[in-house]
Backbone:
């Protein structure tokens, strides 16, 4: 089974060569024999044949025998179908499946956490604050109502400035709060203003 994004990578690799792009451009106008393309591009026929083989492997060109020559043509319908499929949001997303989406969060946590899991300091950069908030919010249980004192006790395990952390969690809609500000609860992740690894 091909790795995620392998087909997409093959497609772009095949078109990453300037001469192959020129061949595609010429074939988009009309079919050509290898010798004609070689003359037009000032390349050896063997080099043109190599490029055509690469393009044929991904289904962009096909050949037909005509007298003593193989005549190559662009598979326009295949090109359009391939572009539509390969450039879809789903296929482009597959190309990034091997990327560790938690890598940035883990790096921030390594830099800001002490061995006991508390914070050395609250970051000043917004993106790093969001990483810290995603880390802290894991200490709250769904379907549990917390008093402000209980929230403060949880947050104090991470940093002495519990008021700032509590305000950030509320502002980012990670914690809900009743109108009197006396009880808090964990909100569903889809309602959070912060997006990223959960």
Residues:
């Amino acid at each position: 089974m091909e790795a995620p994004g392998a087909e997409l990578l093959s497609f772009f690799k095949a078109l990453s060569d300037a001469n192959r792009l020129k061949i595609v451009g010429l074939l988009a106008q009309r079919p050509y024999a290898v010798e004609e393309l070689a003359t037009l591009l000032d390349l050896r026929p063997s080099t043109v044949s190599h490029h055509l083989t690469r393009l044929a492997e991904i289904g962009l060109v096909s050949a037909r025998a005509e007298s003593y020559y193989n005549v190559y043509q662009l598979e326009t319908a295949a090109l359009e179908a391939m572009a539509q499929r390969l450039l879809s949001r789903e296929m482009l997303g597959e190309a990034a499946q091997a990327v560790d989406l938690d890598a940035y969060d883990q790096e921030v946590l390594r830099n800001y956490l002490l061995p006991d899991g508390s914070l050395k300091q609250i970051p000043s950069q917004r993106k790093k604050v969001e990483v810290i908030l995603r880390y802290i919010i894991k200490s709250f249980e769904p379907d549990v109502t917390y008093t402000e004192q209980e929230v403060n006790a949880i947050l104090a395990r991470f940093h002495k400035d519990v008021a700032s952390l509590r305000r950030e969690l509320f502002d980012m809609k990670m914690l809900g709060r009743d109108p009197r500000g006396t009880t808090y609860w964990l909100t569903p992740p889809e309602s959070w203003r912060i997006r990223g690894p959960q």
In short: The chain has two domains: 6-94, 103-191. The chain has a mean pLDDT of 85.
